[in-house]
Amino acid sequence: MKILISGGAGFIGSNFVTRTIETKPHIKITVLDALTYAGSKKNLDPVNDKISFVQGDIRDAPLVEELVKDADLVVHFAAESHNDNSLKNPALFFETNVMGTLNIANSCVSHDVRLHHISTDEVFGDLPLDSLEAFNLETAYNPSSPYSASKAAGDHLVRAWVRSFGLRATISNCSNNYGPRQHWEKLIPNTIRSLLREGKAPVYGSGLNVRDWIHVDDHTDGVWLAVERGAIGSTYLFGARDRQTNLSIVNSIREILGLPESAIDFVADRPGHDLKYSVDPSYSETELGWSATHTSIIESLPSLVAWYHNALDPK
Questions:
Q1: N or C of the chain: less Cβ packing under 10 Å?
Q2: 272 in any annotated domain
Q3: Hey, which residues does 264 pair with through a beta bridge?
Q4: Of 63, 55, 66, 65, which Cα lies nearest the Cα of 7?
Q5: How confident is the model at residue 314 (pLDDT cuts 50, 70, 90)?
Q6: Is the pTM of this model over 0.90?
Q7: Structural domain contains residue 194
Q8: Per-residue pLDDT tens for 5-24?
Q9: What's the chain's average pLDDT?
Q10: For residue 315, is pLDDT > 60?
Q11: Which residues are catalytic?
């Protein structure tokens, strides 16, 4: 089996590549990545001799066409994904997350290649902090940021191509991932770096915004089950029912590093900051036989802090 993994040098993509090689060594992997600031070939160092790597952009339709026609499966991770950056440059997010996805979908249709499209729970907007609800397959899309709006558009595009052009695709929407090799801009690595370098960590607003966390390997396992057992045109939600406030994550890291409460630096909230994400993965558990197997994020933080501490450039 030959698979093309777009965005395979990023955080989730590189973890997907390495776990796939560990669990499915017979598969031939090609990684397509533009190597923007959020992707690095170093993320693939452990498996460089086992994959083919192409530096390129999913917005390059001829390149995408050339690579897709030689694949049996495309797993599409490539995306601009940082909310703060989407507020500064929305156009880039729509060019990549919509038009890039259009190129992937069109090429998969042209060559009858199976596609799995990776998306986010952020397309559903947010929930009140005191809500007991969770996002499910009946939840209407209600994106809050240019990033989540662009991902929502990409999801709708894939569904329309399934119906209109016979695209053989599945979609998954996942909660916040944690694990090694995440870019320093994200909450956990940014908190670790800020505390180690400046002795303070920024927290938006009150810090009481709630996120639903899942280990990146549990996400990878879910994606493979969606590919192998999922029904064409179906969507699968992956979340570990592990909901934590941003402040609880930052405080836990602070305590691991032995720093005082004064190390928390409350800053002005960002525009459109979603209050709460909560994912109901019941359908994926029932239909795919999937379940999250890792410990809670709070229990995983000591090993994560150690990993990012070791990875931190001493400069």
A1: C
A2: no
A3: 201
A4: 55
A5: low
A6: yes
A7: no
A8: 999 999 999 999 999 999 99
A9: 96
A10: no
A11: 121-122, 147
pLDDT at residue 313, as a whole number: 67
Would you say 83 and 120 are in contact if contact means Cβ atoms under 8 Å apart?
no
In a domain, 99, yes or no: yes
Alpha helices in the chain (DSSP H): 11-23, 61-68, 83-88, 90-94, 101-110, 146-165, 187-197, 216-229, 246-256, 282-288, 297-311
Report if residue 104 sits inside a domain. Answer: yes
- C-alpha span between 300 and 291 (Å, rounded): 17
Tell me which DSSP letter residue 58 carries.
T
CB count in 10 Å sphere of residue 268: 8
- The CATH number assigned to the domain holding 170 equals 3.40.50.720
Beta bridge partners of 33: 55
**Amino acid identity of 96?**
T
Which residue's structure tokens are 């558990």? 285
Q: How many domains does the chain have?
A: 1
Cα angle value 180/148/20 (rounded, 5°): 35
Q: What is the mean pLDDT of residues 152-158?
A: 98
